[in-house]
Amino acid sequence: MRRVVVTGLGLVTPLGADVETTWKNLIAGKSGAGQITHFDTSDQKCTIACEVKPADHEYGFDPDKRVDFKIRRQVDPFIVFGIDAAGQALEDAGLVDMDEDMKLRAGCSIGSGIGGLPGIESESLVLANKGPGRVSPHFVHGRLINLISGQVSIKYGLMGPNHAVVTACSTGAHSIGDAARMIKDGDADIMLAGGSESTICPIGIAGFAQAKALNCSSNDAPEKASRPYDKGRDGFVMGEGAGVVVLEEYEHAKARGAKIYAEVVGYGLSGDAYHVTAPHPEGKGAENAMRMALKKAGLGEGDIDYVNAHGTSTMADTIELAAVKRVLGNDLGGASMSSTKSAIGHLLGGAGAVEAIFCILAIRDQIVPPTLNLDDPDEGTEGVDLVPKVAKKREVKAVLNNSFGFGGTNASLIMKAVD
Amino acid sequence: MSDTEERVKKIVVEHLGVEADKVTMDASFIDDLGADSLDIVELVMAFEEEFGVEIPDDAAEKITTVGDAVKYIEEHKG
User: How far apart are CA A275 and CA B2, in angstroms?
Assistant: First the structure.
């Protein structure tokens, strides 16, 4: 059977424009939250988010680094973040210059939950105010979700499968899981896989606030707003950014002497069949996804060392924790579990991929990132190591990453150190 | 350089991200400045906005160089 390993990583997050800066800040317990600067929030219920910082910030993102000026002008920020993260991952894997045969066997599966919402919003206003003759000719392909995969394939000449998952907040995890299958099935030897999102715009914030999903009660204390598993949690904080990994067939990676971070050993997916925004109250869908992933990985209770929870800082956190307990045991079989959304917010379609990368780095550095703002843990958290506030050194061999999305879609990934 | 020429060149630089000294009157949008057909649609829109002229599709198709654009605008602006 073909095995799939991770050989490259790329990140653009509210805590850094690359993998190492983001990870260093995450482990140091920093928060990426602050007042929204992308637009005037004076009439919004929610005025805070975890924004990717501008280029002149200490750990800001320079869009010119990997994205051509002309493309950057034409496309929404989620595509810019995605192209940059994909470029980082290829550079990390030593795969920027592949020969033609390799390029034929290299593909992309980089998705997004919503896609180019800021551009849809602004061009709709152009349409309304100036008429159809002023709508940008780049409007459509600058907003489409599969245009990260499209742009990346054009930039790097990748002629293998070109795919994009759209499963709301499960997108990043599904992208990696599906791409791993494409490699297993022999469709490709190398896949760039991940997710990206950038919807911190008036209609994005208003839409999620109206859906009662966003924290609207902590505008004066943004860094305290995302507090998964805490009794005082009151909705998620929107983040933005991208995470992309290079997945590679194991023998292929070994033959070229690639650095191998981890192996993708388990992937489970399910549907809640319950409600468009609320998870099933018994967490059956989440449980099914985790069980499927564990079964495929050939692992059981006690084999997982770290769980990166979906943990959005909403009431759903309790449901997820109960499901994880049913699957791994009341003490999670000794696993630590944290929600890094406490630090970087919820990257929606980017979340699953960014968090998968955090899981991989936990394996690399034998340290697990903290759950910030866990001042008063909710009922049901007793006896569970939620890594409150401070990162924790520990043995990490196998990790479980959960992602759940609107529509009742669930994905669980399991990755393991390669001996 | 006429005022029209200067403003046209500025728009081209802003939209295509090319060096200003490459934007000569003879420069072809596609062959010399790296534009594609959609970029030209966008440029024509920007010229229409900037100069308050209307450039119909059949006229836009004949605008292939910076000089063509300047000439058309000079002849049609109010």
Answer: 64
B34 at interface of A, judged by CB pairs closer than 8 A: yes
Q: Do B17 and A70 touch (CB under 8 A)?
A: yes
What digits encode the pLDDT tens for the residues A235-266?
999 999 999 999 999 999 999 999 999 999 99
Residue of B nearest to A68 (CA): B17
- Closest CA–CA distance from residue B64 to any residue of chain A (Å): 18
Alpha helix positions (H), A94-146: 100-104, 117-130
Q: Three-state DSSP class for A225?
A: helix
Q: Closest CB to A70: pick one of B16, B45, B49.
A: B16
The verdict on A138 touching B (C-beta cutoff 8 Å) is: yes
Please indicate whether, in this complex, the C-beta atoms of B39 and A68 are within 8 angstroms of each other: no
- Residue A83's φ and ψ, nearest 5 degrees, are -65, -45
Q: How far apart are CA A339 and CA A287, in angstroms?
A: 17
Distance CA B28, CA B64 (A): 6
Q: pLDDT tens for residues A18-55?
A: 999 999 999 999 999 999 999 999 999 999 999 999 99
Cross-chain residue pair A134–B45, CB shorter than 8 Å: yes
C-alpha torsion sign, points A357, A363, A366, A372 = positive
Of B17, B34, B42, the CB nearest to A136: B42
A106 has which bridge partners? A190
Query: Looking at the complex, does the CB of residue B45 fall below 8 Å from at least one CB of chain A?
Result: yes
Report the alpha-carbon distance of residue A70 to residue A66 in Å, rounded.
12
Q: For residue A340, how far is the Cα from the chain centroid? A: 10
Among the partner residues A68, A134, A137, nearest to B38 by beta-carbon distance? A137
CB of A133 within 8 Å of a chain B CB? The answer is yes
Angle formed by the axes of helices A19-27 and A351-365, to 10°? 70
CATH of span B3-76: 1.10.1200.10
| Cα-to-chain-centroid distance, residue B75 | 14
The ipTM of this complex is 0.88
Which positions ≥6 away from A234 have C-beta within 8 Å? Answer: A215, A216, A217, A218, A225, A313
Residue in the block written with tokens 């029209």: B4
- Give the pLDDT confidence of A258-277 residue by residue, as tens digits: 999 999 999 999 999 999 99
- CA–chain centroid gap for B34, Å, is 13
Global pTM value: 0.96
Q: Which one from A163, A216, A346, A359 is the annotated catalytic residue?
A: A346
Contacts of A133 in chain B (CB under 8 A): 45
